[in-house]
Fold each of these.
Amino acid sequence: PLVVSVGQVVPHEVLGMANFNKNLFVGVGGVEAINLSHFIGAVHGMERLMGRGHNPLRSILNYASERYLQGELDLWYVLTVMGSNDETGEVETKGLYIGNDIRCYDLACELSLKVNFNLLPRAPRRVVVYLNEEYHSTWLGNKSIYRTRMAIADGGELIVLAPWVETFGEDERIDKLIRRVGYVGTPSVMEALEGDAELRNNLSAVAHLIHGSAEGRFSITYCPGRLTREEVESAGLGYADLDAMRRRYDVETLKDGWNTEANDDDGAEEEFYYISNPALGLWAVSGRFEDGSSGTPTPSYPPSSAKRGGTNLTFDGQEASDASGGVGGWKRPPDGSNSR
């Protein structure tokens, strides 16, 4: 049978680069495929994956494609690369690739790294990201963290202007999990996973918590329009008042890239880096991208009891959540609907 898979290739927090056979094995593969792939990617390390078309997790999907799909399906990929117009700022198609093997994907990745990848000459100590009306949860809004963490300087700060953010998860169950565990760093999340059956059955939530943690290397200040200070800080994030921060960082006048502001103490100019749409790219400094390092040691896994031989963690029985959509998430569907 003929199968046509259509999608956009862009740097991705789970598979390194989005689309190609991810559409088939993860996109329509069911809840186990979504949750396990996101968990494997998170534990392997986001900085080792993002912007890399070939990595261990992608190799699993490539092997599955060769073994189970290529001989059974007339499978064609239609892959686009999207980017901003230099003059108007509008999103436009930069490339279109059609093929039935991995070369189609490789060519799209090559262009995407030129269009969507922003290699900075130095690490900004402050990054300001604006989230538009499409982002109403940290589940979606933490793309601001995923896409900038390879650029932010050690000891730096990420400020997230999030007028429409009103919740953490995309459904009540995931929202409660995020509030209960928080963005507390990989070791603490993995420790919580060991003794929590609900977490083990929602590995995409575990991946999200790992992806959204700064691991102590930089700070994250959320400025949500519809969450309280208490809610934000109890989830392990910093909080600042949205109105005050919008007066300080006027998104109507800021330009994407390097900007400056006057220091309150002495009036000296301080620079920061502004991003108006984190979904359109990946930002890094050359050293961190080339060696795949996050700047912090990578913890060893499995968790402590498994290393002692006391417990083997099993992850069968993964649960689907309405509108959760994996780590990337979907927009919340209309009330009473479980799909878009």
Amino acid sequence: KVDAVWAGWGHASENPRLPEMLSKLGIIFMGPGVQAMRALGDKISATLIAQSVGVSVLPWSGDGLIVDYKKEEVPDLLYQKATVHTAEEALACAEKIGFPVMVKASEGGGGKGIRKVTTKQNMTLAFEQVTAEVPGSPVFVVKLAPPSRHLEVQLIADSYGQVVALYGRDCSVQRRHQKIIEEGPVVAAPAHVREEMMKAAVSLAKEVGYVGAGTVEYLFTVNYQSNSTASPRAPTNEKENESGNYYFLELNPRLQVEHPVTEMIAGVNLPALQLQIAMGLPLHLIPEIRRLYGADESATTPIDFEDLSKLVEPLGHVIAARITAENPEAGFRPTSG
């Protein structure tokens, strides 16, 4: 007899059909519910919800659209307004928000269904490539960010409305839209920005009643300076960083491959936390979580998880590197090596 299913990461872990089918069989899915996964796993829906709860987003095809998720989830009419259905619509949107832009498939990921467009002459080809790589996926257009860092916040949420942000990770070093180097905690953004990002991630999760592990990804723009003879330089001091802004990118409604980075700096076991949450334990009764907030691990008193001043300092700094392989004879496509 199967009591529960842990899907780990990959396609099955973020496919809402899996928890939906398991629910009909009376089997617990160790992750978010169907509605939360469907809403946040879809880039268009997630961005609509994010901007509706006050999280900063880049100019995009859904600018200004507000949804009351708790009242009506994401109405199809609003969803369609945020979607571009043809290359002509994509071009009109790009001209409105200004080139360069990114054309993205709402159900894309891992480098698929995403194209940079710098001129209107390239829009038709880019739109066709995106729709071909992720067949059937809705498509949207978003302003290309200036030189940025890819920062993310690890979340863990229980079934009682409690959500904890477990520091952050910097996954800026990428190849073909695939992460190569991941590190934590984040040092590229100043402390007050990191705190804002964590609070925004928690608000987004609470808005949809999220349960389990998830990651909110942001783009953090910094004062890079470059010229024709030098590569972009990183900020050199804290004051320079303070002028940076962060923008919501997406939420991954699952555990990510780079989760050990967070585990090492926070001293937690994320798959174990997923199991404990699926068993019905509230976060404030889990010793690892209590320790993070400097609370007595054996006590049962409630914890104000929104008071980030109580969050203890990370245990150190971790850098993780992915070993990747590509086949140069096949256009440098990923290969098993």
